[in-house]
Amino acid sequence: MKKLLRRVAAAAVLLSASATTGNVGPAIARSSQPFAFHASPASNIEVLRPAKGQSLKAFAASTKGKYKWVVNAGFFNPKNRMPIGFLRDDGQHIDSIHLTSSRSALGIFEIGEQRFASIDRVLHTKSGKIYYRITSGYDWKKAIEAVQGGPRLVQDGKVVFGTQEHREGFKPDVLKGANRRTVVGLDADGNVMVLVFNKDIGLKDAAEAMKRKNAVHAFNLDGGTSTTLIEDGKLRLYSGRYPPVYLAGRK
Fold it and tell me: Which site among 8, 65, 203, 226 is 20 to 30 Å from 56 CA-CA?
């Protein structure tokens, strides 16, 4: 009996350590479930950017008491840390590398004293023009917060990953590869949902996982070595790179 208790205790320590450091322990590696799932109302969603020269550890600590969860946002150039795609923070456009085709984006909009979230395809050109589909009914030039990624995984409650229309200009090697993932979506009540995977997983599997969480719309954010998760000020998952932009849910 004592030997059995020691084995159980050892397994618990291993699982706790892997959740804290972001390393994939055996108990997690065998699971197809996401490492973390969070959902927050649109009114609690913010885009965060670490201060210049601030370490990831210090940035994580600065979120304690303010944010329930923080995850990496869209893609960026690792050489100069410049974000890629459409990006807005606190009602202001943030300089970024422009795309040549529209891709999925999450926007937070304010109407009166209420905030709403929407996912749509957006293209922000070098000339400053912003093109977007009218399906959401929101003016993306007035988004309070916005991040962009891709490709689209779920639309109108259906998995659409892999269809020609929803590839959004990504190359086949990106679409077919397996990596750690950060995925964002919306449920039927307009809550913003995030799934974080700390094991290599294909985008089709990530899409199916979002559908099981009842996502109406969902798309892929940056992943691989950019996959990052902070919970209550603690760095739960770090994969190697320090992204310049994050999506967060306030407490």
Answer: 203
Go through 138-158 and write b for each residue having 16 or more CB atoms within 10 A of its CB, e for each that does not: bebeebbbbbbbbbbbbbeee
Phi and psi, residue 165, nearest 5°? -65, -30
Alpha-carbon distance of 251 to 230, in angstroms, equals 13
Q: Which residue has the tokens 């990624």?
A: 149
Cα separation, 121 vs 16, whole angstroms? 39
Domain count, the chain: 2
Residue that the structure tokens 């004592």 belong to: 2
pLDDT tens-place string over residues 191-225: 999 999 999 999 999 999 999 999 999 999 999 99
pLDDT in tens, 111-148: 999 999 999 999 988 877 888 865 667 899 999 999 99
In a domain, 14, yes or no: yes
Same domain? For 153 and 203 the reply is yes
**3 vs 146: CA distance, rounded Å:** 53
Q: Are 233 and 57 spatial neighbours (Cβ–Cβ below 8 Å)?
A: no
Confidence of residue 229 (pLDDT cuts 50, 70, 90): very high
